[in-house]
Amino acid sequence: MSYSTETSNQSDIWAITTDLTTLRQKLLDLFCRLAYQEGDFVLSSGQRSFYYINGKQVTLHPQGALAVGRLLLHLLPIDTQGVAGLTLGADPIVSAVSVVSVYENRLLPALIIRKEAKGHGTMAYIEGPTLPAGAKVVVLEDVVTTGQSALKAVERLQAAGYTVNRVISLIDRLQGGAELYKSAGLQFDALFSIQDLQEEYRKIAGKR
């Protein structure tokens, strides 16, 4: 579906509502309308799937980014000192949470984890402010399938001396990611499961 903005009055709801349940529902609707497709797809994991979720259609959408930032910030433990994720899917997510954190007076820096070390300069895997040794960082992800992408980010952060024990995703495809994180001693949360998304998608399709 092509990009469109809502009217100014409707748009204001995304920014001023204090009801996170309403905001969560609006974000789910946006995922169904912009990000979810059905067909024949090959995922980054190599698995084939009859559906595909292009999370960046939502996380790079102005209202979607705002909702993502507000909702994920609410899920972060109070002692969180930074948010991070593997490029590219997590880039707009960690940025949104970091920006929203200013308005909530929590000031959480965002870190972006490269898939390969930087080829020049510092040769770093991690981009962003240098946090204190042992800082508690939460890894964020858009869509979790097998869980390998976020786990790679966790390992890079831990190797850099940060404390990481939690992964939060926008959508869990329920294909082994949660089990992988549990085996690695990580807590895992997701805003939506694929079941949530598909149920809402069917409702919207039925109204067309």
From TrEMBL:
This is Orotate phosphoribosyltransferase. 5-phospho-alpha-D-ribose 1-diphosphate binds at R114, K115, K118, H120, E141, D142, V143, V144, T145, T146, G147, Q148, S149. Keywords: Glycosyltransferase, Magnesium, Pyrimidine biosynthesis, Transferase. PANTHER family: OROTATE PHOSPHORIBOSYLTRANSFERASE, URIDINE 5'-MONOPHOSPHATE SYNTHASE. Catalyzes the transfer of a ribosyl phosphate group from 5-phosphoribose 1-diphosphate to orotate, leading to the formation of orotidine monophosphate (OMP). It catalyses: orotidine 5'-phosphate + diphosphate = orotate + 5-phospho-alpha-D-ribose 1-diphosphate. It comes from Nostoc azollae (strain 0708). It comes from the Bacteria. InterPro entries: OPRT (IPR023031), Or_phspho_trans_dom (IPR004467), PRTase-like (IPR029057), PRTase_dom (IPR000836). Homodimer. Pfam families: Pribosyltran. Its EC number is 2.4.2.10. Pathway: Pyrimidine metabolism; UMP biosynthesis via de novo pathway; UMP from orotate: step 1/2. GO terms for molecular function: magnesium ion binding; orotate phosphoribosyltransferase activity.
